[in-house]
Amino acid sequence: MSRDRYPHEDPVVVTCGLPYANGDLHIGHLRSLVSADILNRAFGLIGQPSIAVSGSDMHGAPVALNAEQEGVSPGEFAHGWHDRFQELFPEFGIEFDNYGHTDDETNTALTTDIVERLIEADHVYEREIEIAWDAIEEQALPDRYVEGTCPYCGADARGDECDEGCGRHLEPGEIQDPVSAVTGNPAEYRTREHKFFRVSAFADVLTAFLDDLEGTANARNQPRQWIEEGLQDWCITRDLDWGIPYPGDENLVLYVWVDAPIEYISSTIQYAERVGHDPIDWTAPWSGDGDIVHVIGRDIIQHHTVFWPAMLDAAGYALPRAVCAHGFITIDGEGLSTSRNRAIWAQEYLDEGFETDPLRYYLTTTGGLQQDIDFSWEKFADRVNGELVGTLGNFLYRSLLFAHRNYGGTPDAKVSAEVADRIDEAVADFEEAVNEYNVRAIGMTAVELSRFGNEYIQRNEPWRLVDDEPEAAAGVIRDCVQLAKAIALLGSATMPDVSARVWWELGESTDLTEASLDAVHEPPASSFGAPTEQFEQLEDELVGDLTASLTAQIEASVDEGSDERVAFSTFDSLDLRIGEIRSAEPVEEADNLLVLDVDIGDEVRQIVAGLRGHYAVEELPGTRVVVLTNLEPKTVFGVESDGMVLAAGDDPDLLTTLGNSEPGAAVR
RNA sequence: AGCGGGAUGGGAUAGCCAGGAGAUUCCGGCGGGCUCAUAACCCGCAGAUCGGUGGUUCAAAUCCACCUCCCGCUACCA
């Protein structure tokens, strides 16, 4: 790894977190993919040799289980999505130099090799662990499909991660009171022998690694905490049929997070094999001659700053120079939810007939990379109309049209010092942005230069000069044409399609993707045709329609199933009874919750209900309510709730009795 | 409880890591200009004690401490 400022001579490998071959792509994925693509293109522009690699993540329990549900093999299932992704990438201008997948030969062989190295270096040991087992289905329950209680904080958690509580990674067997999330069957523990990677031995290596790590701050700060608290060794095998076999034990496969990041190397190797190792050996960064730059989502920081560098170090590879962890995207202020169809799907965006550059621009320049950003069609339209149509598109169009009409192309004049300097400034800003992995700043340079362009042309009024002072007019337009060329170059990382069109309209014959920023001062062709308008205005009416249909889409999904009828037996399975509230107390820490003691005839239950603020605590005792008594118990805010008190509406209106039914009376 | 991110003119954002002229840009408001340009563009004005308190410093939005509030992972539907 070098610490040299970019550009330097050694190759850089930019990676993008692997899309999981388990579902379609939405704007959240696009933020990752596009950010990595922009960084890679930007490196190229400043003369830094670089490639972008990634691949589909195919293994793991979710793929295996979803494939089974669809009645196809996991391989077929994953390949379906893999093919799909590869169709979508070009639509969004995402160009990988190599895009493989984790189940291919390269990755299987390399993963096996790396794990063997870990074993040889004595970094792996065996340990018997208790793992969850669905005795009815007679199969191991993958960690993702176990639910239970976090042993650290007591919150409800998923088998592999305390997703609702402390956010810790959980090792198999750690979770308490497990049940299968698939069948709902209670999970029992069985003793199995699994393999563990001695991550705990790498605390010093990782601390040093983090001290030097570039990229976003969250990727440095979050893992420091984990290291201070003490690293746990990492279980790297699973009881599953789908995956890369653990070398030496065909009954186990490697955990998906072992082979997934190795695909970064595999993909690099595949590229190197295709283009050869001369003059650049693209695999060199993995052995320290060059840089590795990871672009990921902030949800997988731990994997990329703890497990992955530990593995790399243990197996004798170089560690990454930068981890750039981007924030999430919200829609109208709320988090994406694929299950609730609260998302803008990549395909949907295309189906609206939009060009992709505006979306690339929005997703990468709305906030800093690390920041969560909000998407709404209104905000999107605002940026597109203001910055892309009004500022950038307008400047390009007005100046190139003027140049074409009056000079048939680039006027024969010299670029002014003011403009040349301003272009240099933009190039310097761009290079600085690349060195800071600041994707936002990379994208803004072209718009900022356009802003200057508009101001410049306005100030110099060539339309006024053209008759009286033709030389001065030619000079101004000469400047504007040069600015347009610089804008095309600077903008080509973020908005490759538009930039390529402008490039072509400027009469350039070379491929813009091969160009470097060195070309900003080279004169454009002396003759070129009429320019086209590069961006389309998003009209209010369209924005309104899009917003309405997005809302409808989300609501339709939420309501889905409301037409379904249930069998009487389903109703009958609910044990509804009359209960009498004996006491009510607020739950500490919770704004809306009360803990109630409810007499249901033969016993008194403790039930948590979201009634605080709607009913006075002191008026509740004595109230008769309807209680669902055979609901499974759940701990909320550390308080066990055994049953559910029924109420109607958003402002809960307790269901009670009209007559005087006694506690315990069944509701029929 | 934990971790991370954040609090900057009406709204949205930059600057904070590498402290230095009362602070960026966009949207919006008000006034003007221009007419080459996709009712686009340009100029000017109003509007911020940079969440609060204390500290370090010649100097703090920027560093430190404490506090308040917000957001995400997830929950106050059980």
Into which percent range does the helicity of residues fall? 40-55%
CATH topology heading of the domain at 376-521: Isoleucyl-tRNA Synthetase, Domain 1
- What would CATH call the homologous superfamily of the domain at 376-521? Isoleucyl-tRNA Synthetase, Domain 1
* Mean pLDDT reading: 86
What structural category characterises the helix and strand content? alpha+beta
Instruction: State the helix count.
Output: 18
Strand order in the largest sheet: 3-2-1-15-16-10
- Give the overall silhouette: globular
Distance between the termini: 72 Å
**Spans of 5+ residues with little confidence (pLDDT < 50)?**
559-566
Number of strands: 28
Give the secondary structure arrangement, pairings included.
Blueprint: E1 12-16, H1 27-45, E2 50-56, H2 61-70, H3 74-91, E3 98-101, H4 105-120, E4 124-134, E5 139-140, E6 146-149, E7 156-158, E8 176-180, E9 188-197, H5 203-212, E10 214-215, H6 217-229, E11 234-235, E12 237-238, E13 245-246, E14 249-254, H7 256-275, E15 291-297, H8 301-315, E16 322-326, E17 329-331, E18 334-335, H9 346-351, H10 357-365, E19 373-375, H11 377-407, H12 417-435, H13 439-460, H14 462-468, H15 470-491, H16 496-505, H17 540-559, H18 568-572, E20 576-586, E21 594-599, E22 604-609, E23 624-628, E24 634-636, E25 639-641, E26 644-645, E27 647-648, E28 653-654
Parallel strand pairs: 1-2, 1-15, 2-3, 10-16, 15-16, 17-19
Antiparallel strand pairs: 4-5, 4-9, 6-7, 6-8, 9-11, 12-14, 13-14, 17-18, 20-21, 20-23, 21-22, 23-26, 24-25, 27-28
Helix pairs in contact: 2-3, 4-7, 5-6, 5-8, 6-8, 11-13, 11-15, 12-13, 12-15, 13-15, 14-15, 15-16
The structure holds one RNA strand of 78 nucleotides.
